[in-house]
């Protein structure tokens, strides 16, 4: 009979296989049914032992992680803006970078007055649900072309009891109504980007968008004006080197006050602009942004 495997041994093994320490910890906590943030518990229990079945499962999880499967797909969940989302290979793994977009959106949305928000390419529903959780009075529409993705978003909305409305559409094509804010984290990676193999487990249609990565952003910018209320904002996430191109696209679509914003890593990660016409603006929507580039 082999020696029982301690948690310390399992973690050492995972590190020797090449896993990041945080991934090794989260996968072990997940396997043991512990909260994923409870890394101190692992240290305090590092002489606990795994059953043979748990050890086999842990090695299998580590092998999948080394094959670039996102940790969120292995654990089935991801925390985003304080919400516990269920995620799987039907949707993009929500990134912390995208919280930048949520924070910007929240600065623009009124604290209590009614407002209409659309999240295009919602995937797991991360952005739409984060906004709805912070702005209970907002009417939030979550849009995705993928029925699979919408099923994930809908299940998250239901579980979190957030009244987001889910609509299947190619961007705004089949979405009725106008919005005070349209947000999107669309696919924006170039088809031939060398990072694509590392992202091979995530839905390709959520990641790449044509030769320069900007096809979907061009479509959204072209569709947005007729769906924006006077004074409404369009905010987009994009790649670290796309801010100037996206600014030009938004200006070309007639948006004003176009500015970009950096993420926590200092990358120009989001660009937005405001739609104005002769009609009176929604007084609840601010006409400024503190971010400049
Ligand atoms: N930021 C993601 C990445 O580079 C891509 C997300 C997207 O295409 N919207 O991995």
Automatic annotation (TrEMBL):
One of its GO terms (molecular function) is peptide chain release factor N(5)-glutamine methyltransferase activity. Substrate binds at residues 185-188. Keywords: Methyltransferase, S-adenosyl-L-methionine, Transferase. The keyword Ribonucleoprotein does not apply. It catalyses: L-glutaminyl-[peptide chain release factor] + S-adenosyl-L-methionine = N(5)-methyl-L-glutaminyl-[peptide chain release factor] + S-adenosyl-L-homocysteine + H(+). Residues 106-192 form the Methyltransferase small domain. Signal peptide: none annotated. S-adenosyl-L-methionine binds at residues 121-125, 144, 171, 185. Its EC number is 2.1.1.297. The keyword Cell inner membrane does not apply. Belongs to the protein N5-glutamine methyltransferase family. PrmC subfamily. Methylates the class 1 translation termination release factors RF1/PrfA and RF2/PrfB on the glutamine residue of the universally conserved GGQ motif. This is Release factor glutamine methyltransferase. It comes from Comamonas nitrativorans. The lineage of its organism: Bacteria, Pseudomonadati, Pseudomonadota, Betaproteobacteria, Burkholderiales. The gene is prmC.
